[in-house]
Amino acid sequence: MVVFWFLLGLLFLDCSDGVYVHTVQTIHDLGQGKDQAVAFTALLSKVTTLGSKEVVKYDTVLTNVGGAYVPSTGVFTAPYKGIYTISCSLMSSPSNFVHLNIMKNGNALALLYSASGTYPLASQTMQLLLEKGDKIWIQNYNTKTAKMHDHNAFNVFSGVLITRM
């Protein structure tokens, strides 16, 4: 609280452009806490064949604010308790159908299905109350291999913290 009043005093004592902008930004940062932002979007860079129950490792990371998504494992770990939006899209290769599960701590939450024969697109979006440390990932539902079609466009996994609880 002392820091806040000191910074507020600086705001009134010296309103030159540089100090004013810096002081306002500092007050804003104290109140908001930059470490609270969590958002990620990752996609597949190439056609990918998944093994039985294999986790999808979305290797092209477009956004990873907060660093909660790990592309080498394909797992998002909630850094805070809160309400999150989690989304996934799927496009199979025409040579096969694909079922994917959205998983939370080892339990299936939702299923996506993309048929064979064309390039059908499926998607799911969920709002979830997650505890700190909860893990979310996408995995092959089937015990057989599944070929996913992509070139940085169709198979996407994303999430964002809506609000902390």
TrEMBL record:
Keywords: Secreted, Signal. GO terms for cellular component: extracellular region. Residues 1-18 form the signal peptide. SUPFAM superfamilies: TNF-like. It holds the Pfam family C1q. Its main location: secreted. It comes from the Eukaryota. Residues 33-165 form the C1q domain. It is found in: Secreted. PANTHER family: CEREBELLIN 13-RELATED (PTHR22923:SF102), CEREBELLIN-RELATED (PTHR22923). This is C1q domain-containing protein. The lineage of its organism: Eukaryota, Metazoa, Spiralia, Lophotrochozoa, Mollusca.
